[in-house]
Amino acid sequence: VGNIMAESALKTRVQELENEVKSLKKQLGDNKARQKIETMSSEVVDTNPYSRLMALKRMGIVDNYETIREYTVAVVGVGGVGSVTAEMLTRCGIGKLILFDYDKVELANMNRLFFQPHQAGLSKVQAAEHTLRNINPDVEFEVHNYNITTMDNFQHFMGRLKNGGKTEGQAVDLVLSCVDNFEARMAINTACNELCQTWFESGVSENAVSGHIQLIKPGESACFACAPPLVVATHTDERTLKREGVCAASLPTTMGVVAGLLVQNTLKYLLKFGTVSFYLAYNALLDFFPSMTMRPNLDCDDSFCRKCQVEYQKTESEKVEEPVEVVKEAEVSTENDWGIEIMTETTEEESNAASGPVPKLAEGLTVAYTLPTKTKDEPKEAVSNGNGLSLDDLMAQMKTL
Amino acid sequence: VGNIMAESALKTRVQELENEVKSLKKQLGDNKARQKIETMSSEVVDTNPYSRLMALKRMGIVDNYETIREYTVAVVGVGGVGSVTAEMLTRCGIGKLILFDYDKVELANMNRLFFQPHQAGLSKVQAAEHTLRNINPDVEFEVHNYNITTMDNFQHFMGRLKNGGKTEGQAVDLVLSCVDNFEARMAINTACNELCQTWFESGVSENAVSGHIQLIKPGESACFACAPPLVVATHTDERTLKREGVCAASLPTTMGVVAGLLVQNTLKYLLKFGTVSFYLAYNALLDFFPSMTMRPNLDCDDSFCRKCQVEYQKTESEKVEEPVEVVKEAEVSTENDWGIEIMTETTEEESNAASGPVPKLAEGLTVAYTLPTKTKDEPKEAVSNGNGLSLDDLMAQMKTL
Q1: Beta-carbon separation of A246 and B337 below 8 A
Q2: Å between A226 CA and nearest CA of chain B
Q3: Active site residues of A
Q4: Would an 8 Å CB–CB cutoff place A401 in contact with chain B?
Q5: Helix/strand/coil for A362
Q6: E-state strands within A208-249
Q7: Is residue B166 within 8 Å of B270, Cβ to Cβ?
């Protein structure tokens, strides 16, 4: 009888545990995570995660949305901006994402989007990969849990930018810098100059109420070393500037806006629609969004930047009245199903003033770093074309203010 | 012996199941979800989820960050914009959130942030509450899974705006409209006019590449009925405009930016820092951000709007040279620990031009709806003050263009 009772109790226990497993699995959603989808479809059904993206074609915004699957984007830094950037690209169905970070998730990160308290203690790239793969299993993920600025890691990092594309051996299509320090920015800059790799810089101020994105096309626009921040120019170790018990402020709003602007410009760059901004800042206190273009510095410390400049000038001079880039004008959909429409009509003149190359430094902008005065015997050859101005021109303008 | 074997097998099974439960619980993070925190602290430790927010005080941006716990915000519509809005407010540690939606999560929503595939089929408010409570258990949540536009629900909805504040019987502090149709916007407008309740309108265009936010202070700025979209003015049932097999496009980028701008302005409004924008639009193709202020329409169809206008004029005329609102100027932190700083210096003149009341309609903006011509015997009394212009003034300006 004792055995039978013990057996019965065990059976009840098994039943209880099986129910708990079932309930936990349901909560985890393991039985619901969606299957891979072979081809992006425009079909308008509740079960199609791509219907709202493919609708961009019918709306006349993007010609070729499905080509997004061919692209690889490297995101360096998976913090407040980088994690949201990676999530947006994942939900957009990017072909491949390569993530770099060496930090761990902390509760102190919970004031920004993406990570959740139960992930505290996990590595950021591993936690991010787990969440992102659940959101969209169609994306290919590659993650690296290391600091890109050490000698060995830097070589590996550069190798992945050069060879980590959709087909191994192919370069990535774009690098997005979402790091929070200058040393890492300089490492990315060095790698991208050597590879002549286009990338976006991004940043948020330590008081949390402003941020910016900057498109760096080596040779065509200023690189990070062309007009370095003071801390870089003076070779200051930025770690010595940190103080015990003091941290930078941050807001999910500012970081969400910067990530949104960064990924929006990434989509415009990859899928060739709209106008890609070279530099766009966000001042949250005033809702002010200055924009400008910075030409490269002929005297840039980075020899690869100077090399890219020469190559860019050569390519440009060989072009015979050909437009540099085919950009698609803002189109208003002829199918206006819901009558929802933003009341904006911009003339070409206004749009030039709002973004792209501008004839002078945008209002409210100042240059933080001034170059040493040139000696007279140095040859001066301003790298400038069209309505863009060289850094020297800008400096001269600044002095007159 | 048979019994002993059966018992042994059952014991093994119990052990296996217990291990599975342990592993699933770990994945779910139930054993790691953070505990409630009694008081917001500025302490800089990895375990403090508020350190980066409280740092806004040391940076000179916000005087009183911890008062955010006293505020209640109602979010109507928990879709692409509303869900991210709710998440940002939750991570910022808002006192109470009231969510309204009657929709279910679908895989077709996965191109926007927040919801995950395993939540497909759940009600949006329930799925959102579960995720948000895990992210920040200090926030008080109240969710309503209904359509606010039906007669009964509308009364209940209005009751919750009137009484749902931190202390029952107190009004909410702000209402955020994140809905995707005009009928719901008009319902919110009607309720807020009757309650003289300040709210923010928000929206994203059906081609996914523009959006806006609009602050509506009944009596002070134009309400949604003051200059209604054509579909509202002509009493068109917008459902008849939808077509089989066609859906609006949407992007996580545009919706993330709009949610970011919406919550940023919500924080500025509640915590009294920076300048709150009355109307701010985002044109994603050009990275163009027009801003303007719209005064109320004397002939607004909504009698409660007209009543609020009279009350606002009365209050304003009783003020003797007192500033309407104390806004804090942009301050640059004196403690610049990392040397990270956005290179923006704005004069008062520039800041006026960039946001807040403007002397004329911003470049690139047009008015979508024109009022019927007035009959001569109607008294005309333009509601306008300071450098703001009435809708009539704006219309007159438009005609000259």
Answers
A1: yes
A2: 16
A3: 247
A4: no
A5: coil
A6: 210-216
A7: no
Residue A248 touches partner B, C-beta closer than 8 Å: yes
Q: Which residue of B has its CA nearest to A242?
A: B337
pLDDT in tens, B322-375: 555 554 544 444 454 554 444 444 444 544 443 333 334 555 554 444 443 334
Which residue carries 């047009």 as its tokens?
Answer: B366
A16 phi and psi, to 5 degrees? -60, -50
Residue B212 parent element (H or E): strand B210-216
Please report, rounded to a whole number, the percentage of residues in chain A having pLDDT higher than 70. Answer: 77
With a CB-CB cutoff of 8 Å, which residues 65-124 of chain A face chain B? 84, 87-88, 91-93, 106-108, 110-113, 116-121
Structure tokens at A188: 């990315």
Q: What is the ipTM of this complex?
A: 0.78
| DSSP strand pairing (A164-168 vs A72-76) | unpaired
One-letter amino acid of B356: G
Residue range B50-318, CATH number: 3.40.50.720
Tens digits of per-residue pLDDT, B121-164? 999 999 999 999 999 999 999 999 999 999 999 999 999 999 99
Amino acid at A59: M
Q: CB under 8 Å, gap of 24 or more: what pairs does B31-36 form?
A: B32/A117, B32/A118, B32/A119, B32/A120, B32/A121, B33/A117, B33/A118, B33/B134, B33/B137, B34/A107, B34/A110, B34/A117, B34/A120, B34/B137, B35/B137, B36/B137, B36/B138
Q: Which chain A residues are within 8 Å of B44, Cβ to Cβ?
A: 245-247
**Any alpha helices (H) in A332-390, and if so which ranges?**
348-354
CA-closest candidate to residue B362, choices B397, B386, B323: B397
The predicted-structure confidence for A334-388, as pLDDT tens digits, reads as follows: 454 544 444 444 444 544 443 333 334 555 554 444 443 333 443 344 344 344 4
List the beta strands (DSSP E) in A224-285: 279-283
Which residues are bridge partners to A170 per DSSP? A168
What order of strands is seen across the sheet that includes strand A279-283? A140-144, A96-100, A72-76, A174-177, A199-204, A210-216, A279-283, A291-292
How many residues does this entry show for chain B? 401
Which chain B positions have a beta carbon within 8 Å of A335's beta carbon? Answer: 246
Question: B259-281 burial by CB neighbour count: b if 16+ within 10 A, else e?
Answer: bbbbbbbbbbbbbbbbbbbbbbb
Tell if the CB–CB gap between B344 and A332 is shorter than 8 Å: no
| Residue from the list A108, A205, A353 with its beta carbon closest to the beta carbon of B340 | A205
Q: For residue A176, which amino acid is it?
A: L
Does residue B354 belong to the interface with chain A, where contact is any CB pair within 8 Å? Answer: yes
Q: How many Å from the N-terminal Cα to the C-terminal Cα in chain B? A: 99
